[in-house]
Amino acid sequence: MSALLDRFNSTSPKKILSLDGGGIRGALTLGYLKKLEDILKAKFSDQPDFRLSDYFDLIGGTSTGSIIAASLAIGKTVDEITKLYMDLGGKIFGEKRNWWNPMETMKWLKANYNYKAMEDGLKQAFGDITLGGVELKTGLCIVAKRADTNSIWPLINHPGGKFYDSEYGKNKDIPLWQAVRASSAAPTYFAPQMIEVVAGQKAAFVDGGLSMANNPALTLLMIATLKGFPFRWKMSEENLLLVSVGTGYSVFKKYVKEIDDSTMLSWAANIPDMLMQDASWQNRVMLQWLSQSPTADYMDMEIEKMDGDLLAGVPLISYLRYNFCITENDLNDLGLGRTFTAVDVKSITDMSNADNRQLLYQIGCKACNTIKAEHFEKF
Length: 379
Fold this sequence. Notes:
alpha/beta, globular
């Protein structure tokens, strides 16, 4: 832990990796990470056992992103995580409760999927490692949502954290599998995760994506720089690199007639996706406002890519965002040897369709050509 503290406290430039939530679409993220790992391996060719945990000083994720983030933080390669993810994804989303057992009525009403499969898979992946375990090679932040207080909980492994080991909390003792399970407990998909945060006090956690932090990049920047958190890294274009990777996104479009005819049930089904897209948009606007990113998104017809818009007059961070728009045209442009239709788009954007996990990984591997070696020359 002393080596980790030395790393946190050093004056060298700091690098943050942020991984979005998105269910099984995390397989697409892994395609991007494979390219990122290859680029950085070439950059640090004198380190034959290079891992992304050697490069990034803080790795954070929400929901499915937390599974990948935690795996990277304990020093796994992207290939190792991909193998784990493909196996785990099939188990997690492979046991849907599509039948009713009168002896398990409450379990059936709580969640669509058998969360025991998730728990068993995460226990196998992380064993007895805790959030404060020496197995963690770098900074880790798992973003969860505490449902009983309606607050975002960034679970971090910095020993100086207020809730790490004090009267306020003992987060260092939380099993890593349990923290990841808490961040991934999407309501209707999986039951909430109960965690004893202090002696005799349990908290109920649900998916961190039910917040402004499904894309956790802005949250991670706040954790890295605000005085209330222990990192307190300096903000400047030369000192702070934030790399954000998505899980793919769809183009939200409805016909006016569809909206006019919407029922309470159809609104209930659409609102989570609407809010998640709005939250991601807000995150990206703020981060582009703080930077002059070579990967800047076209935000809308009014502000476009925000060229020259700088909140402080100068860039305060270096920022890179990698993601893929899941449309028929974009999919067909990848050259995957098949023709994609609107039906395919609907299937691929489904966050719980485990049958797509290999395809999603292939999409990420093809779409990752937006990651350039020159993006990392300064760091």
